Amino acid sequence: MNRNLSGLIKKAFLLVICISLASCKKMYDIQPEDSLTGSQVYQNVYDADAAVLGIYGQFIGLADRYIILNELRGDLLDITPNANNYLKQLNVHNVTSDNPYADPRPFYKVINSCNDALKNFTIMHNNKLLDDNQYYQRYSDIGVLRCWLYLQLGIHYGNIPYITEPVSTVNDLNNEAQFPKITFDQLLDKLIAFTEAIPKPYLTQNTSVTSPTLLLPSGTYVLKDGVFKFFIHKRSFLGDLNLWKGNYLAAASYYKDVMETAGTLTNSVDYDIQLYDTYRVTNDNSGRNTLLTIGTINPWMSIFYNPLAEPETNRERMWTLPLDQTYNTNPFIPLFSSTSSYLLKPSALAINNWDNQVRSDGGLSDRRGLNASYRITGGKVEVGKYLATYNPLLPLSTTTGILVMYRAGALHLRYAEAINQLGRSMLAGVLINDGVYTGLNGQPNQYNGAPDVYPFNFNPVKPTGGINGPWYRSIGIRGRAVDAKVTFDPANLVTDTENKIIDEDGLELAYEGYRWADLLRIALKRYGTDPNYLANKIGAKFDATGSPDAATVRARLSNKANWYLPFKW
Amino acid sequence: MHFFTKSVKILLLQSLMVSVAATQLHAQQADSLTRTKIGLATKAKIVINGTVKEGATGKPLAGISISVGGYSAALTDDKGQFKINVTNYDAVITVSGPGYQRKVVALKGKSSVNISLFEEGYVSQYDLTTLPYSVVPKNQVPFAVTSINTQGTWNRALETPDSYLQGRVAGLDVVRRSGTPDIGADMLLRGYNSLYATTQPLIVVDGIIYDNNNYAKSIIAGHVTNHFADIDLKDIDNITVIKDGNSTYGTRGGNGVILITTGRAKDVATRLDFAAYGGINASVKSLPVMGADNYRIYLADVLKTIPGVTDAQIQAQPYFNDNPNPNYYTYHQNTDWQKQVMGSSASQNYYMKVTGGDNIATYALSVGYLGNHGLTNNTNLTRYESRFNATLNLSRKLTSRVNLAFAKSEQNLRDQGQAYNTNPLYLSLIKAPFMFPYQISGTGIQSPNIAKADTFGVSNPIAAANKIQELNRNYRFVGSVAFDYQFNKEFALKTIGGLTYDKVRENGFYPSNGIAPITYSSFVANDVSFANVQRLFSLYTDTRLQYNHEFNKSNQVAANVGFRYNRSDSESDYGYGFNTASDDFVSLGGANNATRIVGGSLGKWNWLNTYANVDYNAMNKYFLSFNLAVDGSSRFGPEISGALGINGAKYAVLPSVAASWLVSSEIFMADNHLIELLKLRASYGLVGNDDIGNYNSKSLYTSQNFLSRQGLVPSGIGNPGVQWEGVAKLNVGLDAGFMNGRLNVSVDVYNDKVSKMLIYQYANTGTGFNYAITNSGGMRNNGIELDITGRVINKAAFKWDMGLNLSANRNKVTTLPDGNSFISSYGGATFITQVGQAANLFYGYKTNGIYISNAEASASGLTNKLASGYTAAFQGGDVRFVDTNGDKVIDEKDRQVIGDPNPDLIGAYSNRITYKRWSLDAMFAFSLGNDIYNSTRANLESLSDVRNQTLAVVNRWRVDGQVTDVPRASYGDPGANSRFSDRWIENGSYLRLRTLSLSYNVPLKGNFLRSATVYATGNNLFTVTKYLGYDPEFSALGSAFSRGVDIGLEPMVTSMQLGVRIGL
Q: In angstroms, what separates the C-alpha of B469 from chain A's closest C-alpha?
């Protein structure tokens, strides 16, 4: 030290230096104040909730993509002259990799959020920041949601990279080798392995009792079914996963468990449960309380627009997403409304399918068709399921809607598809026709002469004075639609029943996001016997309008490689 | 850089351990601190004789002070002769006297010297240059610097410091942002040194970093708050631009450093200077848009091309109904809308400065007022400024300096650029000329009420100019206190601490009357009120130990070690409200609750720069400077590979070295009378750019709502390795003075290599994100700069000084990740940045005329890929786009480089002529070889809708076989004839008489006035250019990706001021 340094200044100088050194670490580690860093989130259960809610918020953003991919690639939706070439590519199954609708990236964005949440939930659980219940509740929900996203990717892209860790490094941003692809079948194995590891109690849909902090009343959305049904319906998804894999008994079991929800749960602050009706396609004979396609205002349509808490439609809806104009724009209005962009419309084939149905009174045309699933406005056919509450004269204030992601109708059809493969074709037929009460003459179903067992057992008994069997109100898919029963070819029972189920899928579930998946699943299963199943199904859409594309589409889809979209890196 | 890591660690520690550093560094600086050393020399005294003459007349000068640094001093006698003792023949003599230039003369072994001096203010190689640690004559500086001693700039009343620098520094490309008063300029020193981080030089004012950045966008379209305008140019004494790798400012110095010194009292006498200016701003020449007659024909033409519209429907429109009807007068006017929204205006400026004091304290106090008007009607600027600089001699060893500055500006503005609903200049170009600004009754009587937005949904330009309210208020306080403690003749401790507080408040209101409503997803906004507050609080300290040591008269060392600490806090909050009760309720509070939009951002960052510097001077001929900075910043990631790490934090280690050889001081040059001075310089240094975002090293989460509940999702890929951008600057230069300083030449050649350049790197689909921010780019700038100044005529009464500076910069991208190119777009222009080419080249379609007929179009065999993804055939009247790849489809793959917005050559040519008491300054600025995308013309010749167009479209293609260069009118432009193509690329070269200033020094009698000068100044008097827009000079953003894109900002106007300055 220089002798000339006067003591005071020397000390002051050293002090300044020391302070600046000692605080170096803190000085350089500044946390942002208008966003959060990894070290600031995932501190408590509320942070975990925020992760779940954020993911669902992102997930809603996939709604239009989900519907476009699954319906336009199927046989029930067609493009209008307004549609751009990229929609046309989807329609004719000739998709280039620059097609924005076919970009898998938005799915991976949500998947990455899921991966990040799952990883951190586990860290929180290990650090005792989440108790077992809190952890499994959230982990299983987001884990199954991620599986749902991967199943979608598998359906549309075939071979895909299965990534379960959040992106952590910028070093391999563009290195495809970091993200190896697996086949659709391998993917199903992985998804099933993942979901089977979830403890069974946590497969129940999230409710406010099981996760009180996650589920809070919000705005116009009341706590109870209206809110809890925003979270994925896990058991039915597990049924779907097993159905894809060909594990029909497992699939049927999951579906049956869901159908019996009213037998395992009771009406409570959490659940709006009606013993004889919840998730069973029924007619409660109350006149008003029915989804039968009768009356001047077709009550069946209310599935797609009734308020979320409304009990009659709540028996049907299993998983819904809100499309609330206050928070998001509803992408389906411009897609489908003839007063807006009007890019997509019901296909002529779909309309023919409905119009050619015979009603139970002998009349023609399905009541689920005109003025329900589709409608005609100013000479233009529109998809009706998304436009019920939209008023073109109030274009800015009437766009709130809901997206029904899963419902009892779909559940019954999937269940029928599964049990048909297990030899219960007759029961499957009953479920899609007039339901187990009429179809089984009010008796528990029998198989090979003995009362059938779980997951095939139905009790529709309606004794006088005694306790009604839980299925006594069952009326079946076509029964509810007031359609005449279809008949099945006993010589070719399993295949014919399956064909009828797929036809019924189209009539009941059109434009709800199931169609391409349903056709693809059957096509994959029948590939050995009927390699042109998919080509013919989709080709029929173009035949119905006499479109010259019919031949080229058939040709492309006769090649299995063209069943999948190009995966854009 | 890795080389240095180890030794630097040691050095850093040393610098922090004062005791070690103090005993080990043997340094000395040749400045006034060593004056007490007289008599120390033991060598034999050598006596030097000399004479000093005036450069112009050759008459001897008496009373000129002669000194040999720290050794001896003398004055010239009546014959201009002097005698002075020196220790050896390497010594230099410093010559100075009131009213004359300061000169440093090398003896070169001679014992007698003849010196001629020009008057004070003559630009020479001996001008004092302000460096970060000292003030030295330019001939001793080893760096590429330009030092401007402003001489008060009393003749540049409306100029801001940044715009003033235009044309004054070779290598500094100053592009004024627009014609809005005080909006300043974007400054590029030797080209772009970054693509996504700041490109603007670091500004240091009186030792304090002057944060000139904006941390949020203005909510007034096209406006930029220019904090540089808060410094009154008349307060500035010196501006020094350091162009090469002086690394002392470390990661802040990547774009060069501009050091500014504001005025202090030069002596204790009380002086008062007062100046007043008044002037006029002219309007600009209107762009040639169609009048009502041509427009009606065009309108009918374009409406006809809407599919399904019949002639009868068009004729039924009220504006085509020529029969008497209630709307006849509404649609049968001929309005020159441009004249309605812009016009000439006035400006005024008052300024007063008082300096004085005593031997304990001196002060300089200045206050100023500026009132100016913009080109657009109802826009204006009011600025108040005050500055107080004091120097306190607290004790023999302790001095202190206090600087306080406060500025407030208030500016009424209007939207510019891409605000197509509210920009009055744009609206005045596209508004149907058959409409009228005011409502008109069915009988043709005009109402004073302005007309509403028209039937086409186009706002009334008058409403945009007169009824829209947009106010920007800016306040800035900068205060600093410095203490210098001189322990002894060798050691000094210098510290400065300062704070900057800046606030920008903006308010605006778009009325419903006259402005077209805006449709949002869930509501229609008839009126919009908005407000914005930006705050910056910054704390800055710079503390260093200075050491000077003189080994002997021929070897001197000066050294500094110290650290700079900067803490900054920024905040921005904005809000938009819609649909107030009426146009009289203009505040956010009156807006509808349900639809408010609020937002903002917060930023906080710390920077610690530890530095060391050694300057070595051998025999006044060899100069060596070594600088080292070790920078830590909260912005740097914790995992930067290869970087110095201390205690978990990563540091940038940035050394630089510079050397110069004063060849002319060698004895072998003694007899060369032509070359007075010749200096060779070379420097190499590493600097950096820390503008890499505050939090990019972290994985951040952003809020994502699920209905009304807020969730959190990852918002991007955090990059823990994110680091400063590095710039390695190599500079070789030459400074020369000829004929006793009558001709001065500086030449610099440089090569700046940017590495670790921030890039938005494409991310794999599997990540779910589109990109990640990585330091994966690189580019380089090569260039040459020439600066010539000289006295052409040198007579006692008539002097003519001329100056020319030229700079040419060539940019080349050297490294990019992924496909080695990326495309960006701004304002309708598309840029390509690819390895091997300049960073931002216009990338679009080449055209080759117009298809004269359908037959010719179909004969071409080309199809046109439309926005919908379909292809369609071309038809007659469509633009003939060039099929670059020969696939017969015109699509994005046919784009090619169609222009370069970077100039080939920029420069300025200046003249100063003095005749007796008159003096005339003229400066021409020019830019050569730069291309401009004229987006205004792209709008005005798109022929795609009901907007009015330029007169050129009268010549549009209408019938088969018509040969023209203007395509057909087609509503909605389905064939995209107006796509980004070379049709809109124009040569942006210009030559402009930037400033012409005449001043007259009034002869005074009596003692009441010390001086009186009268000024007449003209700005932007004429511009020679082929550019078809209003003005070829503009800069919308400082970024490379906006360069050359004319988005329709207010053009520069010709302005003239008369002023008077009085000294008491």
A: 28
Tell me whether residues B763 and A173 touch, CB distance under 8 A.
Answer: yes
pTM (2 decimals)? 0.89
In SS3 terms, B296-311 reads as HHHHHHHHHCCCCCCH
| Among A residues 493-552, those touching chain B with beta carbons less than 8 Å apart | none
Residues A355/A373, Cβ–Cβ less than 8 Å: no
Instruction: With cut-offs at 50, 70 and 90, classify the pLDDT of residue A532.
Output: very high
Closest approach of B796 to chain A, Cα-based (Å): 54
Q: What are phi and psi of A384, to 5 degrees?
A: -85, -25
Report CA-CA distances (Å) from A124 to A46, A117, A121, A500, B412: 12, 10, 5, 49, 54
B868 interaction partners in chain A (CB closer than 8 Å): 83-85
Closest CA to B557 of B624, B472, B499, B512: B624
- Residue A5 C-alpha, separation from nearest chain B C-alpha, in angstroms: 7
CA torsion, ordered B887, B891, B896, B900, to nearest 10 deg: 170
Residue A455: asked if its preceding bond is cis (omega within 30°), the reply is yes
Residue B863 is encoded by which pair of tokens? 């199809």
Instruction: Say whether B870 and A84 touch across the interface (CB within 8 A).
Output: yes
DSSP line for B883-916: -TT-SSEESGGG-EEEE--S-SEEEEEEEEEEET
User: Which has the closest alpha carbon to B428: B389, B385, B462, B381?
Assistant: B462
At residue B5 the predicted structure's pLDDT band, cuts being 50, 70 and 90, is very low
Q: Which residues contact B333 (CB under 8 A, 6 or more apart)?
A: B292, B433, B434, B435, B436, B440
Mean pLDDT across B28-57? 61
Chain A residue numbers with beta carbons less than 8 Å from the beta carbon of B485 are 9
Flag if A108 and B766 touch (Cβ within 8 Å).
yes
pLDDT for B84-109, tens place per residue? 888 888 788 889 888 888 888 888 88
Q: Which residue from B minimizes the CA distance to A54?
A: B711
Tell whether B593 is within 8 A of chain A (Cβ): no
C-beta separation of B793 from B741 below 8 A: no
> Burial of B936 by CB count in 10 Å (0-12 exposed, 13-18 middle, 19+ buried)?
buried
A38 touches chain B (CB under 8 A): yes
Q: Within an 8 Å CB–CB cutoff, is residue B823 touching chain A?
A: no
Quote the minimal CA–CA distance from A313 to chain B in Å.
21
Is-contact B893 B884, C-beta < 8 A? yes
Count of other CB atoms within 10 angstroms of residue B1006? 5
HSE toward the beta carbon, residue B225, CA cutoff 13 A: 33
Give the C-alpha separation, B170 to B841, whole Å: 24
Min Cα–Cα distance to chain B from A32, Å: 7
Beta bridge partners of B565: B541, B608
3-state class (DSSP) for residue B429: helix
- Return the residue in A170, A390, A402 with the most chain B beta carbons within 10 A, the one to mutate for interface testing: A170
* Cα→Cα distances A395→A259, A329, A344, B521, Å: 39, 11, 18, 9
Burial of A296 by CB count in 10 Å (0-12 exposed, 13-18 middle, 19+ buried)?
exposed
pLDDT at B3: 42
Q: Is B546 on the interface with A (CB under 8 A)?
A: no
pLDDT of residue B37: 42
* Closest-CA residue to B1018 (of B1057, B1052, B991): B1057
- Cβ proximity of B724 and B690 under 8 Å: yes
- Say yes or no to pLDDT of A308 above 90: no
Smallest Cβ–Cβ distance between A32 and the set B695, B709, B761 belongs to B695
Q: Give the gap in angstroms from C-alpha B869 to the nearest C-alpha of chain A.
A: 4
In this prediction, residue A205 has a pLDDT band, given cuts at 50, 70 and 90, of confident
Residue numbers in B near A104 (CB within 8 A): 765
Strand B446-450 to strand B46-54: parallel, antiparallel, or no bridges (unpaired)?
unpaired
